[in-house]
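Q: I'm writing up a methods section and want to include an example of the input and output format. Could you take the sequence below and give the corresponding predicted structure tokens, formatted cleanly so I can copy it straight into the document?
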Amino acid sequence: MSQKNSPSTTAAKGASATQGAVIRKLESSKETAHERLMKKHLPAWVISGAMNVGIIALMILVLGVRTADTKQSDKIVATSIEKEAEPPETNLTNDAPGFQADLVIAIPELKRIEDRTVDDVVTQDPLGAPNPTDTDTSALKPPGLTSDRANSGVTGTNGNLLSGTDGDSGQLSASFAGRSGGTKSELIKKGGGSKDSELAVGRGLAWLARQQRQDGSWAFDGDKKSELIAATGMALLPFLAAGETHKSGTYQKVVAAGLAFLLKNCPISGPTAGKFNGAGDMYAQAIGTLTLCEAFGMTKDKQLLLSGAQAAINFIQAAQGPNGSWGYGPGANGDTSIVGWQIQALQAARLSKDIIVSDAVIKKAIAFLNIAGAGSRKAAYGYNDNSGAAPGTGLTSVGLLCRYYIDKWGPDNAGMAEGVLGLMKRAPGAGAKPALDMYFYYYATQVVHFFEGDEWKTWNEGPKQADGNRKGGMRDWLIELQKKDGVNSGSWDPEPGFIGRSCGRLGTTALCLLTLEVYYRHLPLYKRGNNGDAIKILEAGK
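A: Here is the clean output for your methods example:
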């Protein structure tokens, strides 16, 4: 603003002219009415004008500073947003927001295991953005259930057989603690997992979540489309294995809705107490029960889960056949395949330490394994007896896992060592792969993982190459086969065997995920020792 146009300049000129006129009038001692009016009010006008000019000048100064600040602030915010928009170098997926693809690279110190991992609390697992802190979990209570499921009146016999060794150097120390916190991170690292395997798990869970139906259930897309209990249980198990529960996690509401569907269909009293409505056979009964028992073992939510899990376990125990096996229907003798799922459910119940499992049921199941096992060491298994039992079959992998869970067969057991040698003949290699048979590989991967040693490294990472690296193992095979784009991104194509035909893409994907989660899904029950017989068997096999 120029001096010529300034309001203060104009006012000053007016004031000077007026003052000169007043002096002249006083000298002549003559004063008109107009002059008296000007003399009376002009000083006030001058003062008021000066104040207004000052205020205007102050506003110009303040607004100028604020404008500069705003521009500077805008630059800072813009710079900040621009930097935050750049994805971390190790974040390779957007399927699960916040998923830490560099989990293994950033392994925390071992001390964190004790700090963050406890038996009955699931800590937040980095599979995606956490739920809002104000999530009201009471709203997740399944509809149509009694207000207090902790007091169901279900009964059972005492004894969980959680003691003893395998006769050499076994030591039981079981819980679900490996699914979260520092323990999980360390198990991924030590067990041979990778950031790519965890990335595959994240993609798979995202796909499974998209398949959930409005009522919380899942449905198979194979021949068993009407089997909603088994489909829902099988779909929930990979979430639980990853540390996701109805109380915490990225998929908290997904898990809650699925558990609600199972609980709604599991009566806790009456003539069918514990039998899932709509479960077509004991396969479905066991898978639904296994899911409830794992969810309870992870959260200790007695109010919501204990009575349903106990009732379902009681039904399984009452349904055991005379020879210790389970058939398609309750009370009938059955086969090794059906037994495998019942044993998994019973073991999950025992690991929870609150769900009662009968010692007698476990001993009868071991008696059946003796019937189905072949050879002096019972290292191979048949269908309902030992005829046709052979090393490296699906039934043998089932029998060996059952022995590990309920008969104290640790890695130092001679029968386990012989059985693992048979499984290793079908270990994925660096060359052409066989057809993906998830019925076999789901069980066999668990057995070899618990066996540990060089056999596990070969199974998981592949045989050692000339350059010293390993290539072509189970882990990378599954990662390679996973769909990476399109509507089925995160899933696996239905495998050509029993699982693919009966359970379709959903069942195949669920078992593939559980296989990739083997590093932390269950902690080992036994420490590996130096049993001479087991070592001799392994050396002879090589």
